[in-house]
Structure formats: C-alpha cells, structure tokens
Amino acid sequence: MIRSKGKEVSTPFITPPILNYPATLINYITIPPFSEQMVEAKVPHHNMIDVLFEPNPRLKNKALFIASTLLHIEDQRIKISIINATDRQQTLSKGTKLGITTQIAASIGVTMPLNDVQERIPKGKAYIKLSPKGKEANITNKLKSRNMQMIALHDEQHQCRECKQYFDTGNELFKHLRIKCYSEEIREQINKLTEHINDDKQREQISRILWKYGKLFDISEPSKIDITLKNAIDTGTHRPIHTPPYRKSNKDQETLRKETDKLMGSGIIEHSTSPWSSPVVLVKKKDGTTRFCVDYRRLNQITTKDAFPLPRIDDIYDQLTTATYFTKFDFKAGYFQVPLDKSDRPKTAFSTRDGHFQFKVLPQGLTNGPPTFQRIVNQ
C-alpha cells in the first residue's frame, strides 16, 4: 500500500511459480551405526542460492534422518548430512533419491504506474510489507518444525549419558567415551568382551553398541530397582523354622566374616531379631571365588509355590535359528537388585558366629526366586 497526499494506491502481489528439483546421491555410501555422515547429492540445476531441501520420507522409515534446511546449489551439487540412528550400518546406492530442493522466492510487490505520484511521496509515508503466503508460509512453518525435531534427535543421539556433554558426530562421542568419560574398569571390560572377534569390521560394529551403552557394563556395586516384592515368601500360618548354623573351619569362618561384612556394607543384609534362621553354606565357584549361600530347603518346603512360567530352553533355541550373532547378557547380582518386602525379610534370616542377619533384597536359594525374578523381567 502506497499513500501520498491522502490517496492510497494498492500494489498487487505476484507469486512466482515454485520449482522443485530432485536431489540424488552421487556415490555409493556406507553409514556406520549411530553415526552422521556428510554426502554429496546431484540436482538438475547449475547454480542457485537459498533453496529449501526437504528429505525423502522413505528414508525415515529406515531410521535415516536428514534435516530440512536452506542451502546453495553449486555446479549441480549440494552437501547434506545423514544420520544413521540404528545399531547397524546402512548402505545407500548411487542415484538414491535423498529429497527435493525447492526454489524459494519472496512475494514481489509490483508498483503500477503512478505518474508523478512516485516523485512526490513524502518521506516515511510509503509502506510495503512482504510476508510469505500460501504454500510458502506452509513450507516455512514445516521447515521450522522439522528442524526442531532434527535438533532434538541430533542432541539425543550425540549426548554423553554420563557427563551430558553434546558432540557434533557419533564418532566424536565414541572417542570421548573411550578416552575420558567411562572409568578404566568399564573400558577394560568392553575391550575384553570384544577381543575374541577376529574380523576388524565386525569387532568395530559390536564395540560401538557396547560403547553406546557402556554404563550397563559397570562392574561396581549393583543398584536396586524401584519395586518392592509382595508375598514372595508365603508360608501361611506355619510357625517359624530355626536350623542351627553348620560347623565350619577357622578359615571358612574368616571367609564368612568377610562376606557378611561385604554384604552389610553394600546394604544387602541387616541385623535381625527374627525367630527364623537357616544355615549358611560357602560354595566354590569355577573362577575360584566363594559364593555366599543360605540353605533354605526347610523354608522352601513350607512356602506356597509361585506358578509363574520360566522360559523353555528348547523354545529359546527355536527363536535363535535365524540369528547370525550369538551373545549373552547377564545381570550384575540380579537377585540383589530386587528389594524384599519388610514382612518377608525375617524369613530370610541366618546366623553366623558374629551375629544374626536377614536379607533386605531377594536372596538366592528361595523356591520362588526364579519365578519372581522372571515376572519382573517380563514386566
């Protein structure tokens, strides 16, 4: 709108046609898992500035993410970044359609002939406001929305879970985890878990997964889950059972004292005044260390059995028939991560030469231990 001497003259807006050009991959590429890679794409237009790139939605189905962005076309080429958000490497063939580039142009105000009015417009009295309309406005809003989603995804994929620091690429994050953030014990544990893999490429693929979730391989004291078991040891109205401690050598007594001190310090057991008591046994493991166990056979005889089903080994074998990689994942002191209800704790009591104790967590040796733990895993 132009105003002069009390007169207003409108200028029509002419929106140029929006031209779309496909962007196709120039070379065959392989993107490592949880990584970002810069690639070149070909566009059938020699040079153009300020074009909007929108990714091919089919790539998102493969967990390959490209941000919507404004960029320049130079010699029919553009450079864009692709994120592989999966735990496996992905390949794209030459000529793969990565997305569409759209020429962006603001609405143009065309002034109609005004004779000498244009020469007499008072200073500060002419106003022309250009704003995106129609499809261009939708493109602008879509660009903002998608960019915010990609920023959030990028931050989540490349954020260290330990120190919360952000990194530009997955490679920088993994380097940071290897060198700085994880403890020496975790680094040694991960290296030990992959040293038997002879193929360098396969070892790198597995290592990336382990480094990403390296905190799971913490070999320090086990944590406790936020759940409390109810009626894990249902003995009905049966009177308490008391079995005197088994006789042990001085060496075993010293080992028993160290084990109880360790369990007490970890918050796994506590002092008890319970009328229940079961004897302790020390079992040698394959690695030469000692497993602290309590003989709960008499307690198990009067405990109502939990009928929750356990996985069948033959069913597990059937599920592995098409597998390529085989591994196992063991909980760190799995039972000790499960808190025990206060009403059940007295029934787990045991005695040593140094005192009377009871478990605060699910101990090994209970008849309902396996089904109770399996129910938690399934949930």
Structure description:
- The two termini are 66 Å apart.
- The protein folds into three domains: 2-153, Distorted Sandwich (Deoxyuridine 5'-Triphosphate Nucleotidohydrolase, Chain A); 170-217, no CATH class; 250-378, HIV Type 1 Reverse Transcriptase, subunit A, domain 1 (HIV Type 1 Reverse Transcriptase, Chain A, domain 1).
- Helix content is 27%, strand content 22%.
- The chain contains nine helices and 18 strands.
- It has a seven-stranded antiparallel sheet. A three-stranded antiparallel sheet has the order 14-18-17, with helices on one face.
- With 379 residues, the protein is an alpha+beta fold.
- It is elongated.
- A hairpin with a 2-residue loop joins β17 (350-352) and β18.
Enumerate the strands of the largest sheet in spatial order, edge to edge or round the barrel.
8-10-6-4-12-7-9
The name of the CATH topology of the largest domain is: Deoxyuridine 5'-Triphosphate Nucleotidohydrolase, Chain A
- How much strand? 15-25%
CATH class of the largest domain: Mainly Beta
Going by CATH, the homologous superfamily of the largest domain would be: Deoxyuridine triphosphatase (dUTPase)
Share in helix: 25-40%
Total number of helices? 9
| Structural class based on helices, strands and sheet pairing | alpha+beta
Distance between the termini: 66 Å
What order do the SSEs take from the amino end to the carboxyl end, as H and E?
Answer: EEEEEEEHEEEEEEHHHHHEEEHHEEH
Number of domains: 3
Shape call: elongated
Gyration radius, in Å: 34 Å
CATH architecture classification of the largest domain: Distorted Sandwich
How many β strands by DSSP? 18
Provide the low-confidence segments as ranges. Answer: 106-132, 150-155
Protein name: Reverse transcriptase domain-containing protein
InterPro entries: DNA/RNA_pol_sf, Rev_trsase/Diguanyl_cyclase, RNA-dir_DNA_polymerase, RT_dom
GO molecular function, one term: endonuclease activity
Domain Reverse transcriptase: 264-379
